[in-house]
Amino acid sequence: MNRPLLLCADGSHHSNLALRAGLALIAPDGPVVVVTVVHEPDPMLVTGTGFAGGVISPEAYDAQLQAAKEDGQALARSVAAEVGIPDAKIMVLAGEAGSQICLYAEEVNARAVVLGTRGHGGLRRALLGSVSDHVVRHAPCPVVITSHPDETA
Questions:
Q1: What span, in angstroms and rounded, lies between the C-alpha atoms of 41 and 57?
Q2: Cα-based torsion angle of the residue sequence 97, 68, 93, 8 in order, rounded to the nearest 10 degrees
Q3: How far is CA 53 from the centre of its chain?
Q4: What are the chain's domains?
Q5: Which segments within the chain are labelled E, that is strand?
Q6: Residues 16/79, Cβ–Cβ less than 8 Å
Q7: Residue pLDDT, tens place only, 41-86
C-alpha cells in the first residue's frame, strides 16, 4: 500500500500558497489526503461545571459537532481543488490540531506531513503555541513546513 502524503489546511489564502510550495518540494507519487481540524464544542456546555448546569442538550452538542465537520469537509474540498488535487481524500479531525494531525499521521502511516506556518515571531509563538511546532516535534514521519512564497515575486 502506498503511504499517503498529508496536506494540512486551514483554508486561508496563505495556507494554500504554502501547501502549493510544499507540493513543489514533494511530488505526490501516491495518495494525497487533505486534512483539516475543527474545534469540538466544549463538552461542559452539556455537562455543566461545578454549581452550574449544562446549557445545551446532548443532541444540540452533536448537531454543533456535525455542523463543524461538514464545514471542515467543504473547506478541505475547496483547498484540494485550489492546490490542484481535486481527487484527494478528505479527512476532518476534531480537537487540538497539532496532536490530532500527529495521531492521524501515525494511524495511516503517512509518508510525510506538509503544512504552512504563519511566521509568528518567537514570543508570540511561545505564548500562543504553534501547530507546526507541535507537529515537527511529535509526528511519526517527516514534516515539511513551508511559508507562503512572496506573491510579488
A1: 12
A2: -60
A3: 32
A4: 5-146 (3.40.50.620)
A5: 5-8, 32-38, 89-94, 112-116, 143-146
A6: yes
A7: 777 777 777 777 777 788 888 888 899 899 999 999 999 999 999 9
